[in-house]
Structures are given as structure tokens and as C-alpha cells.
Design goal:
502 residues, mainly alpha, 18 helices
């Protein structure tokens, strides 16, 4: 089994376990602490997602790129790189800590709508959650170092283990204490614990002195353009990714933000396969590009792209089929019905977004980040006003349409440039395959699900058998549409290290 395939399987298993564990505590928080407590937690996550997202992508992408290309050939440079980026990340922690501490009281008192929890208590809770979650900055750096040396199994073991510990602790505190603030302190402590575990694992592969925050102008200058482009992209991406939730937090109630935030996060977990493959493939593609092996790089890209498009259909179809039972179990029947249509729209949006994951990685591999920067800038002018108006007039349905609009714009802006300028192939190869797979998914899963909704036969038993029948039909039809190259090479790709590119 190749390093890439091992990392793919490791990522899939890890992300799947994380997705399942992520549901555990939400039901207990909602039932025991109330809908506003859930909303406040998701509001805190929203504030940090905006701040952390500005730098996180730049730290992650730059670190994986540089470490994967230089770890074995230029140890001296890697030592200075880790020290420089440690300096940047800890500087970001201190800077944002001050900003959040001063900003949170004004956000809580002037932005969100709460009734059952006092303003002062809410301010303390949000400060604890937001300040402690800034540990994500150095944690992301340490995880990226492990990804750069293609040791994803450590990343997944740590993430799953610490998530399990966090969820168990939340349930224990709710059952035996019942105090919201105790749960909040535990969530904050879990961020610090995760950082410490990552650090202890990293010093197994990197010298402990490398983690001293020492700035190197040479390293900074070498990575300035790529990192700043990534930060700029992150800042723009955070605006359109979080605009729906920011609008909901102001226009709707804080509890509505909690319901939508949970649905959004739950559906995003269906990107397990996409994130696992693209994360595992990124250092591998960087290595192939560094070795100027263009033929093998193109072969590997095509293989993974086709596999992702076909494999993601039953995954996101399962999310749609399971959404009503899941939301009814976590919340209640009325809330689950309110979340149904937004969930369908979000699922389709996340599927299309997944189709862009590997083209986006190719942009990073080739260093053509300016394409993504321009895309996000132009998209912002259309998406942001649309989302605000859509949330105001359509509520949660309008919020979910924002992601879909952005991804459709990205398909028609980014894909032609990636295929022409980076891969030197025709962009219609992407669109033909995408439309083909969407047609098959709509014909099988879509038709059967619409029939269930129309006839109101939506109990768990009917949903299960309907999904099973649709899945079999999709598999049979897909077998005739999948390229012969994928059929012949898929097993070989995962079982042997050397892959033929013929």
C-alpha cells in the first residue's frame, strides 16, 4: 500500500470518527442546558472561525508545502521555518487575545439576541470559549508539520482521541453538575490539552529547539507572497463562509443560529472523503511537481478527481436521507422540518465545493494563488449582498443558498484557469464529468427521495430501503460511466507504490 493510500485511509477513518463524536454532546447540551446555550456556543465558534480563518489557511498550506518539499533535503531551512512560523502563530495568539477580550462585551451586548441567560454571564462564557480556542493557531501549525512529513495517522489519532475526551467530559459535567459555565471551562481546557499533545508528538520528528519562536527574515521573505496570498484568500473566504451565520446571529434569534450552526457543521462532516483525499494528496502532488513529473501528476489528479466525484454522491445522498431522523433525534420534529430544505441545499453546495478541492490544490502546488485571490474578490461582491438579503427575506433557506451561489461562481471562474494554465488540458473535461455524475445522482437518489417526501413515507425504515435501492441503481449505472482507466488503475493505485501513467 502506498504512502498516499495509507494517508487517505487514515484520514477517512479519523474524520469519520470525528464526525460521529461531534454529534454526541450536542443532544445533551440542547436537552439539559437549552437552545440558547447551544446558540452561544456556536456564536463563540463563529467569532473564532472568522479570526482564526484569516491566518489558519496560510499557516496550514504554507507549512505542508514547504515541509513536504524540503524536509528530507534541507533540514537547516526546515529548522528556521518552524521557528519563524512558531513566532508568527504565537504572535497571532497574543494579538487576537487582546482583540477578543476587548471586543466580546460589545458583541454580546449589541449584536446577539438572548433572553434566558444574563448579559454578564454570556460575556464571560464567550470570552472563555473564544480566548481558549485561539490555541488552534499553534495546533494547526503542529498538525501541518505532521501532514507535511505525511504522518497523517498521528493527526487522526490525536484529533479523534481528544474529541472523545472532550465529548465524554461534557456529558459527565452536564449529568453531574448541570452548570453551563463548567461545561465552558472544560471545552476551553480541551483546546489547551490538544495543543500539548500535538507538541509532544511533533518533538518526536523535529528538534525541540525548533519550536522556539525565533524570527528569520530569510524564511519570511521566501514565503511572503504565497503566505500573504493564502491569508488574503482566507480572509475573503471567511467572509462568504461565515456571512450566512453572521446574518442569522443578528437577524434571527441566538437559538436559530445554534440549530443552523449544528446543521451546517453536521453536513460539512460529509466532506470526509474529499478532505481526506485532498489532504493526503497535497504533499504528494507537491513532491511530484517538485520532481517535474508532470505526466504522473496529471494521471494522479485525474484518477483522484473522478473517484471523488462518483464516491461523494452516495455520501451526500446519505446526509439528505438521514437529515430528518438525525435532527428529530437531536432536537424535535418541528425543528427538523425547518432544517430540511436548507440541509438539501447545503448538501448540494458542499458536494459542488468538494469537486473543486483538487483543482484548488493544483493551484497551490503550481503557486498560482493569485487566481484564487481574484476569484474570492469577485465572488465577494455578489455573494455577500445576496446572503444578507436572502437571510432577511428567506431565513435559513436564504442562508443555505449563499454557499451554493459561491461554489457555482467558483466552478465557472476557477476551473477553466486551473485546467488551461496549470494542467494544460481542456476545462470541459471537468464539466462533462461533473454533469454526468450529477445526472446519475439525480436520476437515482434524487428521484426516489422526492417520491418519499411527496408521499410522506419518511420513517426510518422507508428511508433506509429507499437509500439502499437508490445506491444499488447508482452503482450499476456508474459502472458503465466510469472511465476504463479508473477501473483498471484504482486497485493498482492503492496497492502498489509505483503507478503506471499510461
Amino acid at each position: 500500500m502506498t504512502i498516499l493510500s495509507k494517508n487517505v485511509f487514515s484520514n477517512i477513518i479519523g474524520q469519520l470518527l470525528l464526525a460521529l463524536l461531534g454529534f454526541v454532546a450536542v443532544k445533551f447540551i440542547y436537552k439539559s442546558l437549552g437552545d440558547e446555550a447551544l446558540g452561544i456556543i456556536y456564536f463563540s465558534f463563529l467569532v473564532n472561525a472568522i479570526l482564526i480563518g484569516i491566518l489558519d489557511k496560510g499557516i496550514y498550506s504554507t507549512t505542508v508545502r514547504e515541509v513536504s518539499m524540503n524536509f528530507n533535503s534541507n533540514k537547516k531551512y526546515i529548522n528556521k521555518f518552524v521557528q519563524t512560523f512558531s513566532f508568527i502563530t504565537w504572535g497571532a495568539v497574543l494579538s487576537f487575545s487582546l482583540i477578543l477580550y476587548l471586543m466580546v462585551p460589545y458583541l454580546v451586548s449589541g449584536w446577539i439576541n438572548i433572553s434566558s441567560i444574563s448579559i454578564n454571564e454570556t460575556i464571560i462564557i464567550v470570552q472563555i470559549l473564544t480566548l481558549s480556542s485561539l490555541m488552534v493557531f499553534p495546533t494547526s501549525l503542529y498538525a501541518s508539520l505532521l501532514r507535511g512529513i505525511q504522518r497523517m495517522e498521528y493527526v487522526n489519532i490525536i484529533d479523534v482521541s481528544l474529541m472523545a475526551v472532550q465529548q465524554i467530559g461534557i456529558i459527565f459535567l452536564i449529568q453531574f453538575s448541570g452548570e453551563f459555565v463548567h461545561v465552558v471551562y472544560w471545552i476551553g481546557l480541551s483546546y489547551v490539552l490538544k495543543l500539548m499533545v500535538y507538541f509532544l508528538v511533533c518533538i518526536k520528528f523535529f528538534n525541540v529547539y525548533n519550536f522556539l519562536p525565533i524570527f528569520s527574515y530569510i524564511v519570511f521573505k521566501r514565503n511572503t507572497k504565497f503566505t500573504l496570498d493564502m491569508i488574503y484568500m482566507s480572509a475573503l473566504a471567511m467572509i462568504y463562509k461565515q456571512a450566512d451565520k453572521v446574518a442569522i446571529s443578528k437577524i434571527q434569534s441566538i437559538s436559530t443560529l445554534g440549530f443552523y450552526g449544528f446543521a451546517y457543521n453536521a453536513i460539512s462532516k460529509a466532506t470526509i472523503l474529499t478532505s481526506s483525499i485532498s489532504s493526503a494528496a497535497y504533499p504528494s502532488l507537491c513532491e511530484l511537481n517538485e520532481n517535474t513529473n508532470k505526466k504522473k501528476l496529471l494521471f494522479r489528479y485525474r484518477l483522484l478527481q473522478e473517484m471523488l466525484l462518483f464516491a461523494n454522491v452516495p455520501i451526500f445522498a446519505f446526509v439528505i436521507f438521514a437529515s430528518l431522523p438525525l435532527f428529530t433525534f437531536i432536537f424535535d420534529e418541528n425543528i427538523s422540518k425547518e432544517l430540511l430544505l436548507p440541509s438539501v441545499i447545503l448538501s448540494f453546495g458542499f458536494y459542488l465545493n468538494g469537486s473543486l478541492s483538487l483543482p484548488y490544490r493544483i493551484l497551490l502546488v503550481k503557486g498560482r494563488t493569485e487566481i484564487a485571490v481574484k476569484q474570492d474578490f469577485f465572488a465577494l461582491m455578489f455573494v455577500l449582498p445576496f446572503v444578507i438579503l436572502a437571510v432577511y427575506f428567506l431565513g435559513l433557506v436564504g442562508a443555505s443558498l449563499g454557499l451554493l451561489l459561491y461554489v457555482i461562481f467558483s466552478c465557472f471562474y476557477m476551473v477553466p484557469k486551473v485546467y488551461r494554465l496549470c494542467l494544460n488540458i481542456n476545462e470541459w473535461e471537468f464539466f462533462r464529468l461533473l454533469f454526468k455524475v450529477i445526472f446519475l445522482g439525480t436520476l437515482t437518489f434524487g428521484t426516489i427521495y422526492i417520491a418519499l417526501i411527496y408521499t410522506e413515507n419518511i420513517d426510518i425504515k422507508n428511508l433506509f430501503f429507499a437509500y439502499l435501492i437508490a445506491g444499488i441503481l447508482f452503482f450499476l449505472l456508474s459502472y458503465n460511466f466510469v472511465s476504463s482507466k479508473l477501473k483498471k488503475q484504482l486497485i493498482t493505485f492503492f496497492l502498489v507504490e509505483k503507478v503506471s501513467t499510461r
